[in-house]
Amino acid sequence: MPRIQGSKAYYIKLGPGGAWETTCLNEGTLRLGHNEIPHELAQTKDREAIRQRFIDLGVSSAKASDKTRELLTFYAGDESVIWITFSRGLLWWCHAMAEVKPTPDGDDRGARWKRCVTPWSSFSVGGALLHISALSGRLTRTAGYRQNICNIADTDYLLARLNDEPQPDIAKAVEARDNLSTALVRLIAKLSWQDFELFVDLIFTSSGWRRTGALGGTQKTVDIELELPSTNERAFVQVKSATNQSEFDQYLSAFGSRPETRMFYAYHTLDKGCALNCAEKGVAILGPERLSKMALNAGLTDWLIQKAS
Fold it and tell me: What is the rounded CA–CA span in Å between residue 118 and residue 286?
């Protein structure tokens, strides 16, 4: 798919409270109300005449100016403009034709509409869903706009997200995070077996799991017993500084006879160099790379630095 271009970008609310969202998203249209202004008058793009019509109808001067701006934006927008809206937890975007048509009599979905050049899309150019929760607030705050159309100030950010283009500051932060994660792998390998076991325990307890048995203990197949209070899910963790596939398989065979629904197998060094393999449901292998990322998320960087020093 070619790069998405846009000279300007606008947010549009598709109907009062989003009442026309389903229609517009499904049929590939944009719709706007302001029924009190005839299509013929709006087509003239005569700002003062349109504004005065609103005022004559009892609209305040400030509101009349705002409504006029929305109408002129809708009629002036050509195919180079990107239109966005928010629906179903996603950002949707499209380019629309310049031509605006009056809504047929009997159709209560606004007074005017225009056709999308391509259908509304909630995907980036690379096929990633544009979840609202993953977008910057400087873009998603427009979802709370109380009127119908507003300008998107940060068009560069919007285009970068639509085109899956890394932003310089974000790229630097990601690189720094990845470098730190790689460095933590080396620190984890320096931990004594006691500190490594404590480290694994801290990762789980910081993420909501609660230890129900003593750390270490005398059970042959268990180092840490856990419970997730929010779901009452139970799990056990086997911690090994160094391990191999044969040893892992022994603990895996014991998993089936235990009451827990999940098993975690944590290690930082492989005896024979080959990665551990497991297709068993409910079993997670936590090697050094994954543990380093979990440590970052759990805020254990300083703890690792201190223990490895």
Answer: 45
The Cβ-side half-sphere exposure at 39, using a 13 Å CA radius, reads 14
pTM of the model: 0.70
Give the integer Cα–Cα distance in Å for 258 and 261.
8
Q: Is the pLDDT of residue 284 over 50?
A: yes
**Is residue 12 located within the same domain as residue 138?**
yes
Give pLDDT, residue 309.
86
Number of domains, the chain: 2
- C-alpha span between 28 and 24 (Å, rounded): 5
For residues 71-100, average pLDDT: 96
Q: Does residue 211 lie within any of the structural domains?
A: yes
Looking at 152-166, 247-261, 290-304, which range is the least confident one? Answer: 247-261
Do both 156 and 176 map to the same domain? Answer: no
Q: How far apart are CA 244 and CA 242, in angstroms?
A: 7
CA angle centred on 128, ends 168 and 284, rounded to 5°: 95
Backbone angles phi, psi at 259, to 5 degrees: -80, -20
